[in-house]
Amino acid sequence: MNRVLVVEDNPNNMKLINMVLKRHGYETIGAVTGEEGVEKAGTEKPDMILMDIMLPDIDGLETTRRIRRIESLEKIPIIAITSYAMAGDREKILQAGCNGYFEKPINPLTIMNDIEKIIERMQS
Predict the structure, then answer these.
(1) Which parts pass through the membrane (predicted)?
(2) Residue-wise pLDDT tens digits, 17-68
(3) Where does 3-123 sit in CATH, by number?
């Protein structure tokens, strides 16, 4: 697993996430809208997707649902990274098809370890 699609519209967050992923040996593919995320998920076939929830067109929940409908991507790890932290949001995020989520701001020193724990849980 080494190609990660990052769907994030904030340039500072995109830069930070890309830096962390590259430092851990991942190749990154960027998308700044939900529509672009769906398109790139289908064409690029990433190994994992990091999904912002607040996007300028369709939100990350709908983006995740659309990606899950692509047969070859139904099992891909999708992890939300969001500023949503309200009661019930975790359930909405998981029901949309995400395998886990992290609240912003992320901790660049621990985020990869946390992501890898989610992926390990999926594989066991």
Answers:
(1) none
(2) 999 999 999 999 999 999 999 999 999 999 999 999 999 999 999 999 999 9
(3) 3.40.50.2300
Q: Where are the domains of the chain?
A: 3-123
Counting beta carbons within 10 angstroms of the beta carbon of residue 58, is it exposed (0 to 12), middle (13 to 18) or buried (19 or more)? middle
Residue type present at position 3:
R
Q: Determine phi and psi for 28, rounding to 5 degrees.
A: -115, 145
The single-letter code of the amino acid at 51 is: M
pLDDT of residue 1: 65
pLDDT digits (tens, 9 = 90+) for 95-112: 999 999 999 899 999 999
Q: Which two tokens stand for residue 63?
A: 């983006």
Q: Which long-range contacts (CB under 8 A, 24 or more apart) does 89-95 make?
A: 92/61, 93/53, 93/61
Residue 98 to residue 95: CA distance in whole angstroms: 7
